[in-house]
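Final report, Chapter 2: Outcomes

The project's central promise was a pipeline that accepts a single protein chain and returns its three-dimensional structure in a standardized token representation, suitable for archiving and comparison. That pipeline is now operational. To close this chapter, we reproduce one record exactly as it appears in the project archive, with the input sequence first and the structure output second.
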Amino acid sequence: MDDEKIEIAIVLYDGVTALDAIGPYEILSRIPNAATRFVSNERGVRRTDQGSLGLMADYRLEEVSRPSVVVIPGGPGQSQQMANEQLLEWIRSVHKVTSWTTSVCTGSLILAAAGILNGVRATSHWLAIDTLASFGAIPVRERVVFDGKIVTGAGVSAGIDLGLQLLAQMNGEETSKEVQLWVEYDPQPPFDCGSPEKAGPEICERLRSRSRFHQKER
């Protein structure tokens, strides 16, 4: 792949979670000969889920028709995007030509809505992962899941891990190690509660009670 142009398309929409998009971007944009495109239905700023940060989509979906890699981030705005037929049709179209079709967090639900995950092993944010089954996906509670050329990451920060694992597949383990060191990705969290199993039932239930997925179930 030394001389091959690698076009990476990262989808943006209002209500996206910033790190879902920027985590993979920080890793994958360092691929030699990579051209990273932030894409959306229309060009312009998309506000993230907190509202205080805007990310610029420089390309319309139809302007990026043959990307090598697609990244679908998640976030509260994902719910509306599951009914965005323009986006879903674009995903279905480019998936035919991608080398890798990927998602982070609840972005996997957008892939599922596009029909990409039927019969596919996939993951998502721990609060949303059970929803995947209703779209014919096979939920897997792992941080990064590869199933053929489809790669899904768990919640938010898992996008960095996804980027590093994908980079190792594309350009070799040594390149991925170099990038990991370059960004000094050496997690040392202050609390050992980064998964439901570690956090315990009380914290999990507090978050679940405030989750949009919990509200749908009620």
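Archive annotation: The mean pLDDT is 95.
This record, like all others produced under the grant, will remain available to the consortium after the project formally closes.
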